[in-house]
Amino acid sequence: MLTHPFLDISYNPSVGYFLGGIDVYDQEESLGESLWGLDPNSDDREKIIREYIIPHQSYLSYRHKFVLLNKLGSALKDKDFDLSIFFGVDVDSHTATAWDASEVETPRNFFEDIYRIASEVWMSELSKAAEEDMSAW
Q: Is-contact 68 18, C-beta < 8 A?
């Protein structure tokens, strides 16, 4: 069983984990200011993904990245999966993405771009994980 990187529990990530790199809760004056100067609906999206979202996952092992990206792939295959739910403020969990769902024109396309870029950036790690027997994790 693949365990969470910091806890002794099974690793079962949410698609929303990808947005941790743009979580500005209690960082409005630093990270928030940087992100609010970018437009998630323009060519800035690639910069947001490459410079904020992907690096935020650097603590994950190649196995964790594989599982997380597969989770996103499954969500993207489900045309009824509402990806807009991951954008916005959740006061119960103390999270706030830089933009809420109304500010991201197509949350599904945003996540499709994350999937495409993460697949590219993590290609060698994903290949390594794919060659392993996941039941041995």
A: yes
Q: How far apart are CA 121 and CA 36, in angstroms?
A: 24
Structure tokens at 125: 């790690």
- Rounded distance between C-alpha atoms, residue 65 and residue 68, angstroms: 5
Q: What is the pLDDT along the chain (137 residues), one digit of tens a residue?
A: 899 999 999 999 999 999 999 999 998 899 999 999 999 999 999 999 999 999 999 999 999 999 999 999 999 999 999 999 999 877 677 889 999 999 999 999 999 999 999 999 999 999 999 999 998 89
Q: Which residues pair with 97 in a beta bridge?
A: 23
Q: Which of 109, 105, 128 is nearest to 117 (CA)?
A: 109
Reported pTM = 0.94
